[in-house]
Amino acid sequence: MRVLNVTNWSFGRNRRLHDEMREVILAHDLTLHYLDGDADHNRTVSAFSGEWEPLSAALMELVHVVLPHVDLTRHTGVHPRIGALDVCPFVPLEDDAWDELRPLVEAFGENLSAQTGVPVYLYEKSERGRHEADLPSLRKGGFGSLIGKELSPDFGPRAAHPQWGVAVVGMRAFLLAMNVNLKEADPTLAKNLARQARRLRSEGDPRFLGVRALGFPLASVGLSQVSFNLTLPDLTAIDDLVDWVREQAALAGVAVAGTELIGVIRGRDVLTSSQVPIAPGQVVETPAGI
């Protein structure tokens, strides 16, 4: 069974660690689609796919490579996070594979907690009714909110790991992640646009169905950023969101500095994503229902 993994790690300023991660992934004969991070978010996204056994083995090896380099008590970065391995989603790349994948993901989460001492929360299609299923709810308050708090994870201790926090693991449907950077260092406009996008989504505006948005400063490059997750990519399009940001920013006298695709994109979404640069390796073919 072919599976895609798109883990988000809470580090982004150690390029040597990226090299070590790349070696691990390729040594397991997996397809590496994306591996990058940045200083402002202090976050790295790795996206790779392959058969379950080598993929899960590589991922556990990556855990032991990366986590010793992360201490969330000293971590600085604009992106919200609650764990060193912050979120670990698995997406099946074969039809009707959800039922087969579910126990494998649960076993991985249990093993992850056993090997690291990190509490693990199952989310999205793996959540079992114990807590919120969506990532924004689970991550609300950040790492600091976990300190001294009694937790109710699916696996592991009832207290956050002192350096590595907790991990969120589970199956999810395909989503698109992309950023629109603004030629404005002050993040006020970016935060306002993200707030508007969330409001329009809650009001049922069809342009924003399934859209999650946050605004960030990018101090190292003197820009700001509107960051989007498209959780219903069959209903929303990257180009429409980029056009909307461009139009709204222009009203405030601010230009778009550029765009970026984070992670992977389905082949059928490429035609409606002309305004983001896409590397060939980022394109993943998926069954119609994913």
Describe the overall structure:
By secondary structure, this protein is an alpha/beta fold. It has two domains: 2-171, Formiminotransferase, N-terminal subdomain (Formiminotransferase-cyclodeaminase, Chain B, domain 1, 2-Layer Sandwich), CATH 3.30.990; 176-284, Formiminotransferase, C-terminal subdomain (Alpha-Beta Plaits, 2-Layer Sandwich), CATH 3.30.70. 28% of the residues lie in helices and 26% in strands. A hairpin with a 4-residue loop joins strand 8 and strand 9 (223-230). The chain is globular, with a radius of gyration of 18 Å.
Write the layout of secondary structure elements.
Layout: E1 2-9, H1 15-27, E2 31-38, E3 43-51, H2 52-66, E4 85-92, H3 98-116, E5 120-122, H4 135-138, E6 167-171, E7 176-182, H5 188-202, E8 211-218, E9 223-230, H6 238-251, E10 256-262, E11 265-266, E12 283-284
Parallel strand pairs: 4-6, 5-6, 11-12
Antiparallel strand pairs: 1-3, 1-4, 2-3, 7-9, 7-10, 8-9
Helix pairs in contact: 1-2, 2-3
CATH class of the largest domain: Alpha Beta
Count the strands? 12
Name the CATH superfamily assignment of the largest domain: Formiminotransferase, N-terminal subdomain
State the strand order across the main sheet: 2-3-1-4-6-5
CATH architecture assignment name of the largest domain: 2-Layer Sandwich
Order of helices and strands: EHEEHEHEHEEHEEHEEE
Overall form: globular
- Tell me about the biggest sheet? 6 strands, mixed
* CATH topological fold name of the largest domain: Formiminotransferase-cyclodeaminase, Chain B, domain 1
The overall pLDDT average reads 97
Strand residue content: 25-35%
Q: Helical segment tally?
A: 6
Label the structural class: alpha/beta
Roughly how much helix do the residues carry, as a percent range?
Answer: 25-40%
